[in-house]
Amino acid sequence: MIDRLAADAVVLVHLAFVVFVVAGALLVLRDRRWALLHVPAALWGAYAELTATICPLTPLENALRRRAGAAGYEGGFVEHYLIPLIYPPGLSPVHQRWIGVFVVALNVALYAWAWRRARGRRHASGDSA
Fold first, then answer.
1. Each residue of 36-72: pLDDT tens digit?
2. In whole angstroms, how far apart are CA 102 and each of 6, 7, 91, 97, 122?
3. Cβ distance 34 to 41 under 8 Å?
4. Domain tally for the chain?
5. For the range 68-73, what are the long-range contacts, defined as Cβ-Cβ under 8 Å and sequence gap of 24 or more?
6. What is the model's pLDDT at position 117?
7. Percent of the chain residues past pLDDT 70, beyond the cut
8. What is the CB neighbour count within 10 angstroms for residue 85?
């Protein structure tokens, strides 16, 4: 029972991390300090998608599920949980790379927006440093 709950908790943490990677730059718009956490997370997420690397949380979840008496699954978190919800069957590594490119482009755009807003605030307050 504990192992199953722990595996479910890993899934929730994993999903929260994916959401943070994709949209965490929105938090940077509110407070630039979020960038200290988001930039490394976004870099890891982009690397994992662009290289088809399996996140270490996936084997942890599978190990917990096996200890709980359930079967693990092949592949990664994205393929197992998100693709059935969002993407059509037959997602290829090429599609996965495009997802990685999209995540990078989205975050670059959001960081550019955050930078322009911060720069505009500095100029409005008369601080040119």
1. 999 999 999 888 888 878 888 888 988 988 888 876 6
2. 31, 29, 15, 9, 30
3. no
4. 1
5. 68/1, 68/3, 68/4, 68/7, 70/4, 70/7
6. 83
7. 81
8. 6
CB 29 within 8 A of CB 110: yes
38: how many CB neighbours lie within 10 A of its CB?
Answer: 22
What the block records as the tokens of 129 is 């440093």
Tens digits of residue pLDDT in 68-87: 887 666 666 655 665 566 45
Which phi-psi region, left, alpha or beta, contains residue 63 (left: φ > 0; alpha: ψ -120 to 50)?
A: alpha
Q: Are 68 and 7 within 8 A, CB to CB? A: yes
Residue 68: phi and psi, rounded to 5, are: -85, 0
Q: Whole domain around residue 10: which residue ranges?
A: 2-125
